[in-house]
Amino acid sequence: KSYLELFMAVPRPTRAEIDLAALQHNFREVRNTVGGHCDILAVVKADAYGHGVAGVAPTLADAGANLFGVALVEEGIELRRLGLEQPILVLGSAFPGQENDILEYRLTPVIYELAGARRLDDCARSANKNIDYHLKVDTGMGRLGFRVELLEEVLAELKNLKNLNMVGLMSHLAMADEPERPLTSAQYRDFAGVVARVEAHGFSPRYRHIANSAGIHSRALSGCNLVRPGIGLYGGLTGGPYANSLTQQPVMHFISQVAQLKEIPRGEGVSYGHRFVAARRSRIAAMPSSTVSDLGVTG
What we know:
- By secondary structure, this protein is an alpha/beta fold.
- It has 10 helices and 16 strands.
């Protein structure tokens, strides 16, 4: 047997447990917040934020997730191989050479630069198919997305890419967990203007979305019909005064046991660099570590 097989065959004293009932609870909290007028895109990028996408994604599908969001094409392929049939939005779009994977696995790319849009259109035209996409506009996050002032020329070119079909229009809030800051209101205002301009060019995107986890719970979602909960699904939403009104539950729990318990005198340091120095006589518990942790799943 390999080292990994032998390692995993032995019960480990330190492990991560994933509570799928808590995940379902957090999803329902999003649903209760947005009501029936918004669909929910569950973000499961980075192996569902380290929680294990093979268990998390089917649970969210059963809970009623309408779409899924991933960062990479490879993550979208994994969801398809798990048997998920919902639309899968690739937030990071396709890198050159991945266009056929977008078609084969029925993935929906985010378009935020024209070179990528042209590659996707060429691929779709060669296959005599169409590719659905979401257009991303930067209203203040400063990361991916077309700048608002370039929108006219972008829309003019997208209009000529006949094998691409805009089914979504999106942006990304930068400060939704700080409601006292003016940027969020400005982003909503600018996004409303973007929606109007896109529709004036003859596009009719089904989905309009800007709210991340913090945005979902911090204010009314005027003009939007899709939300994108990410870290909030896993119990990680802690910023902003609205968080106090939520009953989010942590989904991941670390379980371990004490390897050694001992007393040390005042003034003695512990571990590398002695960054902790006991201010008084103290009882110190040493915990075992694991190179590979078991992933226990509870319902």
